[in-house]
Amino acid sequence: MLILNDQSMKNMNILRGGGILTIFKKVTEGAKSLGEGARTIGKKSSDLVETTKLKMEISKREKEMENNLSALGNLVFMQYKGEEGLEDEVDRLLQSTRELETEIAELHEQVARLNPKPPTCPSCKTQLPLVAKFCYICGTKITSDNPEG
Predict the structure, then answer these.
(1) If you write DSSP's letter for every residue of 11-60 in order, what string do you get?
(2) How is residue 5 annotated by DSSP?
(3) What's the CA dihedral at 56, 62, 67, 68 to 10 degrees?
(4) For residue 29, is it within any domain?
(5) Cα–chain-centroid distance for residue 118?
(6) What is the residue range of 132's domain?
């Protein structure tokens, strides 16, 4: 035997009077916002992984460049001491180092595109949210041509 109190009766009336539709609607809206949140988190984690890979490539190339510069120093010293025939190796290392500089700059640009730098107020130098139109400290209008942002 089922005994219903006043609250149970009210709940049943709500469910009968369209409350179920309201509940399903809220559940659906909640699921949509969770899906959007999951997509946002997925995108951010993907960007983080990509940024980490790019920074590892930068580090690898910087180490290679460091080795080239060290070898160049040794070659120059050997030339100073009178050894001959080292010009081709010096030229090869110089060219390789120049190429590494270019590659490192391109990798830094890719990292910057993945992680845009937030704008900075030109007046008070406060770092602002990416979508800021005005500085929340001093009220200066933030424009896309502000060099700081």
Answers:
(1) HHHHIIIIIHHHHHHHHHHHHHHHHHHHHHHHHHHHHHHHHHHHHHHHHH
(2) -
(3) 130
(4) yes
(5) 11
(6) 117-149
Give me 145's structure tokens.
């041509």
- The whole-angstrom separation of Cα 41 and Cα 145 is 30
Q: Which residues contact 128 (CB under 8 A, 6 or more apart)?
A: 118, 119, 120, 121, 135, 136, 142, 149
Higher pLDDT, 80 or 28: 80
Choose the weakest-confidence range: 33-37, 94-98, 115-119.
33-37
Give 110's contacts (C-beta < 8 A, 6+ positions apart). 54
- pLDDT tens-digit readout, 103-141: 999 999 999 999 888 889 999 999 998 888 999 999 999
| 47-55 average pLDDT score | 93
Same domain, 103 and 121: no
Q: Are residues 89 and 133 in the same domain?
A: no
For residue 86, what are its two tokens? 């080292």
Query: Taking the CA of residue 68 as centre, how many other CA atoms within 13 Å lie in the half-sphere pointing to its CB?
Result: 19
Better pLDDT: 142 or 29: 142
